[in-house]
Amino acid sequence: MGTDIRIKICGLHTRAAIAQAASLGVAYIGLVFFPKSPRHLDIEEARALALDTPPGMAKVALTVNAEDAAIEAILNRVPIDMLQLHGAETPGRVAEVRARFGLPVMKAVGVAGAEDLPALDAYARVADQILVDAKPPKGADLPGGNGLAFDWQLIAKRRWAVPWMLAGGLTPENVAAAIRLTGARQVDVSSGVESAPGIKDADKMARFVAAARGETDA
Ligand SMILES: O=C(O)c1ccccc1NCC(=O)[C@H](O)[C@H](O)COP(=O)(O)O
C-alpha cells in the first residue's frame, strides 16, 4: 500500500465533493452519464463541474452502451480525459471508440465467478485500462455503482498487460484488505463513500483515501 495507490471516486456531482477529492489527492473523478442513475449529470452540469475541477485529477466520463453521437455530444462540451465504458460494449466496440475519439478508454468488466475471467483478458487486449468490477445482480437498474463486492480471491494472482482498477463494494472498512489480497494499485469507489445513493459523504471519502493508502489500522 502507500501513497502511490491511485484512487478514483465515481459519481461525483457537486463542486464541494470534487474540491474535497482534489484536496485528498484523488487521481480520477468519474462523471456519470446514465439517466437512470442517482449520480447522472446532464451535459451542461458536467461541463460546469469539469471546468471548475482543479488540475491534476483525470475527469472520466462514464457511459453505458452509448452511441457515437452521445459520446460526441459529451466531448463537444465537457473537457474529458478518459472514457469509461460500463455497458455491454464488445471488444470491437471498445477498439472503435478508442480509435474514433482519441481518448484513453477504460472498460468495466463485471466479475461474479471464474467464468467471467476470460473477458478480462479479452478487454485488456483492446482497452487502455480495465475496471475489474462486481457483476450487477440480474435485473438491477444500474450496471455498476451497486455497492456489491465480488470474491477478490478470483483475481488474487492475476495480472494484465494494461493498468487495471479494482471496484465493486469497496468501503473505508474493506479497501485495505482488498488491496492486500488482490495487489491492486488502483481502486475505484462510489457507493462506499456515500451517505445515501448519489450523496457523497466527506468523512467517508477521507477515511477511504486514508485506508487505501494504509494510513489507518484497517
Ligand atoms: O454509479 C452509477 O450510478 C453507475 C451507473 C451506471 C453504470 C455504472 C455506474 N457506476 C460505476 C461505479 O461507480 C464504479 O465504477 C463501480 O461500479 C463501483 O461502484 P460501487 O460498488 O458503488 O463502489
TrEMBL record:
<comment type="pathway">
    <text>Amino-acid biosynthesis; L-tryptophan biosynthesis; L-tryptophan from chorismate: step 3/5.</text>
</comment>
<dbReference type="Pfam" id="PF00697">
    <property type="entry name" value="PRAI"/>
</dbReference>
<keyword id="KW-1133">Transmembrane helix</keyword>
<keyword id="KW-0413">Isomerase</keyword>
<dbReference type="InterPro" id="IPR044643">
    <property type="entry name" value="TrpF_fam"/>
</dbReference>
<dbReference type="InterPro" id="IPR011060">
    <property type="entry name" value="RibuloseP-bd_barrel"/>
</dbReference>
<dbReference type="InterPro" id="IPR001240">
    <property type="entry name" value="PRAI_dom"/>
</dbReference>
<protein>
    <recommendedName>
        <fullName>N-(5'-phosphoribosyl)anthranilate isomerase</fullName>
        <ecNumber>5.3.1.24</ecNumber>
    </recommendedName>
</protein>
<dbReference type="InterPro" id="IPR013785">
    <property type="entry name" value="Aldolase_TIM"/>
</dbReference>
<keyword id="KW-0057">Aromatic amino acid biosynthesis</keyword>
<keyword id="KW-0028">Amino-acid biosynthesis</keyword>
<comment type="similarity">
    <text>Belongs to the TrpF family.</text>
</comment>
<feature type="transmembrane region" description="Helical">
    <location>
        <begin position="12"/>
        <end position="34"/>
    </location>
</feature>
<keyword id="KW-0472">Membrane</keyword>
<keyword id="KW-0812">Transmembrane</keyword>
<keyword id="KW-0822">Tryptophan biosynthesis</keyword>
<dbReference type="GO" id="GO:0000162">
    <property type="term" value="P:L-tryptophan biosynthetic process"/>
</dbReference>
<dbReference type="GO" id="GO:0004640">
    <property type="term" value="F:phosphoribosylanthranilate isomerase activity"/>
</dbReference>
<feature type="domain" description="N-(5'phosphoribosyl) anthranilate isomerase (PRAI)">
    <location>
        <begin position="7"/>
        <end position="210"/>
    </location>
</feature>
